[in-house]
């Protein structure tokens, strides 16, 4: 089974997580950094990770407002996902409401310093996105 990547797209970073070979557990992989709103660069760097990890599926966090509406950030994520689909990579858009909050709580409970939290928060949010997808997919 090919690996699945989880993406948490921000305006300057892309947190990336990866599944284990069985598709059961997500772990942090890396954070891609790019100039503010330079999604061309983010896409190119993400493609390099996809090729390196031989992934065939991406679970991309879809930011929604608490009422379920998709706002500007959500529209950016949808447009970003289409670029991967255009080159034959399967993309699953996954509701990411509160994933950053949950990731931050985990890091706080682990007594991770503010400086270190800032470095890994995007990866941890990507882990939350991918793990929730894996849990949902493996119910049965």
Would you give an account of this structure?
The chain starts with a strand and ends with a helix. Strand 1 and strand 2 form a beta hairpin. The protein is built from 4 helices and 5 strands; from the N terminus they run E-E-E-H-E-H-E-H-H. 34% of the residues are buried. Helix 3 packs across helix 4. With 140 residues, it is an alpha/beta fold. The radius of gyration is 14 Å and the shape is globular. The chain has a 5-stranded mixed beta sheet, sandwiched between helices. The longest helix has 24 residues.
Helix content: 40-55%
Gyration radius over CA? 14 Å
Order of helices and strands: EEEHEHEHH
Q: Summarize model confidence as the mean pLDDT.
A: 88
Q: What shape does the CA trace take?
A: globular
- The residue ranges in which pLDDT falls below 50 over 5 or more consecutive positions are none
Strand order of the largest sheet: 3-2-1-4-5
Class by alpha and beta content: alpha/beta
Quickly count the helices.
4
Percent of residues in β-strands: 15-25%
Q: How does the major sheet shape up?
A: 5 strands, mixed
| Terminal CA distance | 18 Å
Number of strands: 5
């Amino acid at each position: 089974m090919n690996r699945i990547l989880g993406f948490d797209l921000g305006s300057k970073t892309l947190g990336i997580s990866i599944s284990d070979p069985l598709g059961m557990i997500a772990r942090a992989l890396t954070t891609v950094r790019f100039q503010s709103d330079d999604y061309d660069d983010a896409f190119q760097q993400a493609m390099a990770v996809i090729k390196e990890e031989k992934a065939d599926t991406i679970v991309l966090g879809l930011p929604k407002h608490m009422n379920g509406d998709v706002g500007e950030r959500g529209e950016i994520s949808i447009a970003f996902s289409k670029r991967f689909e255009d080159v034959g990579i399967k993309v699953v858009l996954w509701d990411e409401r509160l994933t950053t909050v949950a990731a931050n709580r985990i890091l706080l409970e682990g007594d991770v310093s503010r400086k270190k939290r800032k470095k890994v928060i995007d990866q941890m949010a990507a882990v939350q996105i991918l793990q929730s997808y894996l849990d949902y997919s493996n119910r049965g």
